[in-house]
């Protein structure tokens, strides 16, 4: 039964993927494509300001770490958080060491993607969040890793909660240049 549900979810995500080409002029080597239970999100990674974090996101995507991972913390008017492919509830990270902060002057606004961390600025690992709105209190305190270039309408549809009951998921996450 679980296998059938996974197949159905993959097919549902495949249909929007075919209908939605990637944005023109996208550097596919530095972008990730997230097919969710609500549709497709494309994120341009900011290798210019957070090279280590961008490489980590691409590495984990290529390893399949993010596949079927829920959006475990989604706060209306603030952000949608995901990326815990270990425990699926926001308490885990990858097998790799935490990353040193790569703070920048890029402001947190709608569509900006940041790395989640603990109170230790050098504790980002695998989890990230997408902003629904401006979050000036995060400016200079959390690493900006990218921005949504397609699919903010999909982000807006993600089920809210802290924690989320029956959460939406990232069904498949890929580096754009790897998509065949």
From TrEMBL:
<comment type="similarity">
    <text>Belongs to the cyclophilin-type PPIase family.</text>
</comment>
<dbReference type="InterPro" id="IPR020892">
    <property type="entry name" value="Cyclophilin-type_PPIase_CS"/>
</dbReference>
<comment type="function">
    <text>PPIases accelerate the folding of proteins. It catalyzes the cis-trans isomerization of proline imidic peptide bonds in oligopeptides.</text>
</comment>
<keyword id="KW-0413">Isomerase</keyword>
<dbReference type="InterPro" id="IPR044666">
    <property type="entry name" value="Cyclophilin_A-like"/>
</dbReference>
<keyword id="KW-0697">Rotamase</keyword>
<dbReference type="GO" id="GO:0003755">
    <property type="term" value="F:peptidyl-prolyl cis-trans isomerase activity"/>
</dbReference>
<keyword id="KW-0732">Signal</keyword>
<dbReference type="InterPro" id="IPR002130">
    <property type="entry name" value="Cyclophilin-type_PPIase_dom"/>
</dbReference>
<dbReference type="GO" id="GO:0006457">
    <property type="term" value="P:protein folding"/>
</dbReference>
<dbReference type="InterPro" id="IPR029000">
    <property type="entry name" value="Cyclophilin-like_dom_sf"/>
</dbReference>
<dbReference type="Pfam" id="PF00160">
    <property type="entry name" value="Pro_isomerase"/>
</dbReference>
<feature type="signal peptide">
    <location>
        <begin position="1"/>
        <end position="19"/>
    </location>
</feature>
<feature type="domain" description="PPIase cyclophilin-type">
    <location>
        <begin position="28"/>
        <end position="160"/>
    </location>
</feature>
<protein>
    <recommendedName>
        <fullName>Peptidyl-prolyl cis-trans isomerase</fullName>
        <ecNumber>5.2.1.8</ecNumber>
    </recommendedName>
</protein>
